[in-house]
Amino acid sequence: MNRKMATCEGSEARSVLSRVPPLLTDLYQFTMAYAYWRADRHNEPAVFELFFRDNPFGGGFSLFAGLSDCLLFLQNFAFSDDDVEYLRSVLPADTDAAFFSYLKELDCSAVSVSAVPEGSVVFARVPLLEVSGPLAVVQLLETSLLCLVNYASLVCSNAARFRLAAGPRRRLLEMGLRRAQGPDGGLTASRYTYIGGFDLTSNALAGRLFGIPVAGTMAHSYVTSFSSLEEVWPQTLVPCGGAGSVDFICLVKGWLGRVCQILGSKTSLVREGELAAFLSYAIAYPQNFLPVIDSYSVSCSGLLCFCAVALALCELQYQPLGVRLDSGDLCRQSLEVRRVFKECSKQFSVPQFESLIIVGTNSISEQSLAELSKKENEIDVVGVGTHLVTCTSQPSLGCVYKLTEVRGRPRMKMSEDPEKSTLPGRKSVYRLLDADGHPQMDLICLSEEAAPEAGVSLTCFPLGLNKTLQTVTPAQVTSLRLDVFTCGQITFPLNSASESRERAQISLQSLHPLHKRLQEPQDYTVVLSERLHSLVSDITKGNSKGSNFLLSN
Amino acid sequence: MNRKMATCEGSEARSVLSRVPPLLTDLYQFTMAYAYWRADRHNEPAVFELFFRDNPFGGGFSLFAGLSDCLLFLQNFAFSDDDVEYLRSVLPADTDAAFFSYLKELDCSAVSVSAVPEGSVVFARVPLLEVSGPLAVVQLLETSLLCLVNYASLVCSNAARFRLAAGPRRRLLEMGLRRAQGPDGGLTASRYTYIGGFDLTSNALAGRLFGIPVAGTMAHSYVTSFSSLEEVWPQTLVPCGGAGSVDFICLVKGWLGRVCQILGSKTSLVREGELAAFLSYAIAYPQNFLPVIDSYSVSCSGLLCFCAVALALCELQYQPLGVRLDSGDLCRQSLEVRRVFKECSKQFSVPQFESLIIVGTNSISEQSLAELSKKENEIDVVGVGTHLVTCTSQPSLGCVYKLTEVRGRPRMKMSEDPEKSTLPGRKSVYRLLDADGHPQMDLICLSEEAAPEAGVSLTCFPLGLNKTLQTVTPAQVTSLRLDVFTCGQITFPLNSASESRERAQISLQSLHPLHKRLQEPQDYTVVLSERLHSLVSDITKGNSKGSNFLLSN
Description:
2 copies of one chain form a homodimer. By secondary structure, chain A is α+β, with helices and mostly antiparallel strands. The first copy, chain A, folds into 2 domains: 9-159 and 394-541, nicotinate phosphoribosyltransferase, CATH 3.20.140.10; 218-389, TIM Barrel (Alpha-Beta Barrel). Chain A is built from 18 helices and 22 strands. The first copy, chain A, has helices spanning 27-38, 67-75, 81-90, 97-105, 135-140, 142-166, 182-196, 204-210, 220-224, 248-263, 272-284, 298-315, 330-348, 366-374, 386-389, 497-510, 513-516, 530-541, and strands at 45-52, 62-63, 112-115, 121-122, 129-134, 171-174, 200-201, 236-237, 246-247, 322-325, 357-360, 381-384, 399-406, 409-410, 427-433, 439-446, 458-462, 470-472, 476-479, 482-486, 489-490, 525-529. In chain A, the strands form 5 sheets. Chain A has a 7-stranded antiparallel β-sheet. Chain A has a 6-stranded mixed β-sheet with strand order 18-17-22-16-15-19. In chain A, strands 7-6-12-11-10 form a 5-stranded parallel β-sheet. In chain A, a hairpin with a 2-residue loop joins strand 20 and strand 21 (489-490). In chain A, helix 6 packs across helix 7 (182-196) and helix 11 runs parallel beside helix 12. Chains A and B meet through helix 1, helix 3, helix 6, helix 7 and helix 8 of A and helix 1, helix 3, helix 6, helix 7 and helix 8 of B.
C-alpha cells in the first residue's frame, strides 16, 4: 500500500463515461421514435420510470448508483451528422427523410428527471428514476439509462455486501480491472465499488478520474525477473535522514542469517532471486516496502527474505510496510506470518514489526470473505478482483424502464408473467421511518396525493398479490426522490465518488441489521397508497383509461 | 428484423476501445517499472506470455478474441503530461524525478508481439500472445492487455456455445446492452458475440462502428403508449406500388372480424390500444411490420391484432415480417402462433403467411436454448441478452500474463498452488492435425527448436503432473501464432468483425465434435516438447538458471 494517496476529490475529472454517445442504444428505440413521429405523437408528454424487480444477491437491499453518469449523458444528448447518416442507412428505405432532420435537432431540453440520490439504500419495485418529456425523446433514452444504472448499482451493492462481510475494520482493495467487461467495465467497477464501501483501488485511471485512493506494489513477475544478487543495483542505501551509503546487500545478508537462526530455518532454501528482488525494491522504495512473498515458498523463502530486508530497513531508520500473500490458505499463513513478525519484534527489539500490514489476495468471494471474518487470522487488507467486479453470484441487476403515463393518462403493462406487470401513473415515493430512525417501509403513491405526515396514521396495501389493507403511523417521513434534471439542466450537484460513498455509508448505517443480513434477510416492506392500488385494480379489470377492450368493431 | 442491414464492413471505424488510455492499468505496474528503472534493468529484453488456465463454461475449447483492440492499444501507447503528473502525485515522494521524464517518452517502438489470429479456436494453457520488449515497458502493458483479451475471448466463446446450442439454422440476435458492464461492456459484447457466431445485434453503435447487422422493431412501451384507435394517425395507407389512399383502420377492422371468426375468438377481448399500436406501426413501416404481441394476451389480443393488420398489409401488396414473443412458454406459444399463421394462410389464400418470422426473447440461457432446440417449436430468431453478455455461468475467463524470459534466460513462477506455476522460456506453438484435418493436439516447444513435420513422429509430454512420454505422428502441422506487431508497427491486418467471425466459423468447423460437446466434452491434448519438459524439470529442481537457492550467505 502506498502511504501517500490521491485526494483530488474536488478535481474529479469528467469521466470517460460522460461521453456515452446517444447511438449506444437499441435500434428499436429509433424505429419506435419514427413511428411516434410519423403519427405526430412524438411530442406528447410521457413519463417513464426505472426500477428493478428483485434485490440482488438474495439480499434485502440494494444501493442506487450511476446517477451522475446519467445526468452527464442527458446533458450531452445529441446526435452527430454521422450518427444520423448511419441511421438512415439501416432504417427502412421508406422512412420519411424529415425524420432524420428531426433527429439532428433533438436534445434533452424538454426532459426532466427526479431520482433517488446516488448511494442511497433502495429496494426492489420502487421507482428510482422518473423521466418525463416528449414521448419519442424519453423513449430513446431507455437503453442508455439502463446501461448506466444497471451495472453501477449492481457492483456498488456487491461492494456493500463485501464490506458487510469484511466488517468495518479491515481495509478493502478493489483490483478487478483485468477481469472486468473491457476498459469501461473496469473503470465503472472501480468507481462504484468505492462508493459501495471499498477503500482503495489498483486502477490508476480510476484514481486520476475519480480521486479514489490507489494502492499496489509488486507482482510475481517482478520477483521472478530476478535470479541473482548480481542484478541488484545500486547495492547501497543511505540511512533515512542520514548520510553515507551503507552496503545494503551485506547488511541484509547479516539479517538473513540472524532471522534464520532465531526461526530455525535454513538459509540454503532461500531463493536468491527472491532476495534480490526484495533488495532491489527496498532500495528503490525504502519507505514503501511491501513485497508479495509467495513466489516460491512463503515459509522457506519469501517470509525470510522479507524479514531480512525489512529489519535492515529498520536498522537504517526506514519503516517497512508489510507483505502480500496471494495463494494458499490465507488465514493460516497470516497467523504464521504474524507469529514470525512478533518473534522478530521481540528478539531484535523492533516494536514496529508487530504491526506490519498483511495483505491477502487470492480469488476472494463474498463467501470466502465472510468465512475469513469468522476464522482467526491476521489479514489487515483484503484485495478483491474477479468476484467483486463480475458479480459472480448474480451478474445482472435487471433494471427496467417502463412507461407509466402518456398525455396525463396512466399506462400499465399487463403481462402473462404477473411479476412483469408495471405500476401505472406518475408517482411520489416516501420513506417512512420508525421511532428509532430505521427505514420501516417505502410508500409509493400517485404524485397528486398529499405527502404522508409524521405521527399521522395512513392506510396502504403491501405490494404483491392478494395483500390486505394495513395501517401504519410513521415516526418520520422523507421524500425519496429529488428533482435532479429540469428541462435540460442538471439541478442537483454532481456528486463526487467520495460524496456518494459517504451517503452510502450513512444510508446503510440507518438500515435495520435484519435487512442487512447477507443470508436470509428480513423482507423490507414496500406499500402502495390506497389510490394507487385502486388505479391498478381498475386498469387490470379494464374499466379505466388503460387500454380498453374493443367493444365493437 | 429490418430487411435492410448495414454492410459497412470496409469502413469499420476506429472503435471506442482503441482509445484505451495507458493509465488504465494497475498502480503496481508503475511501482515495478520504477524499481526496474532505478536498478537500470528497465531496458533488459524480456518476454511475457498471455494464456488462460481452464477452458470456460466447463467446455472443451475457447475462441481467442480482442487482438485488434490490443494492437490499437499498443500502437497508441503513450502517457500524457497529465497522466505523468497524476503518477507523480501518487507514487512515493522519494521517487526519482528522472523516472517521470522517462515515462513521458515511453512508447511501444521496441515491443513485438506474436499472437494467435482473432477468432481461432484455442485451449487452456497454450500461450496465445507473446509480448517481447524492454522489461519495464512490457510489464506496464500487462493489465490493459488482459483487460482487452479476457472479456472479449470469454463472451466470444460464450456466443459460440449459444450458436452450438441453437444449431446452425436459427438466427441469433444479441440484445444485452442494457445488462452489460456499462457502455463499453455493451459495445464489447456486441462485437465479440458477433465474432462468436451471432447474426445480429440490437446495439446501434456497434452496428455503426463494427458493421454488424442491426435489428429491432418495438418494445412493450410502444404498445402500452396507445389506448384508443383515435390515436392512430394518419389513418390511411397507399397500396404498395399503387396510388390512392385506403382507409387502413376500416380495412383492418374488417380483417379482425374475419380472423376472429375463423379462429373462434372474441373481438371483445381484443385490446384497442394494442390494435392501435400495431396499426400505427404498420402505417409507419408497412414493409417492416414485426410487433411484440404479448403486451396483454397473445392468444386473446396480440396475435389477433397482428393477423388483422398483417392480412390488411398483404391485401395492399405489402409483406409483413412476423412477430416477437417476450414472455411465457416460448415453444408452446410459437406452435400456437404458427398454427394460426397456417390457418390464415389456408383460409385467406395468403401463402406468405405460413413463413412469417417468429422471434423469441425471454431470458434465454445456453441451457434454455439447448432445451428449446430439443423441443418442438417454430422460433426462427432467438434474442439473447443478460445470460450472453454477463456470461452468467462463468463471468470471467481468468487470463494471466506471465514472465517467461529475461535477458535470454528462462523465468518461471513456482507456486504453492501447482496449477499456478508457469512454463519458462520463449516458445513456439504448433497445432498438429490428424488425417481427417481435425486438430489433434497443440505442441508447445522452445522457440529455438525445429518445427515438427507432417508425417514425422515426435515425442512429447502431455501437460500435467506425472504424465509420461508419448509419441505422435501428425498428418499436418500449422504454426498457431503469427507476428502481429513488430518494433512498434502493426504487421498483421486489423481484422474486421466479420473477418474474425469467418475465421471463428472455419476454426470451429474443423474441431472434432467430441471437443465441441457443451457438456462433458473430450479433453483436447496439449503437450510439451521433450526439451521444454526438461527445462521445467530442471528449474523446478533448482539446478538451472531459474532462481538458484542461496547456497551461502
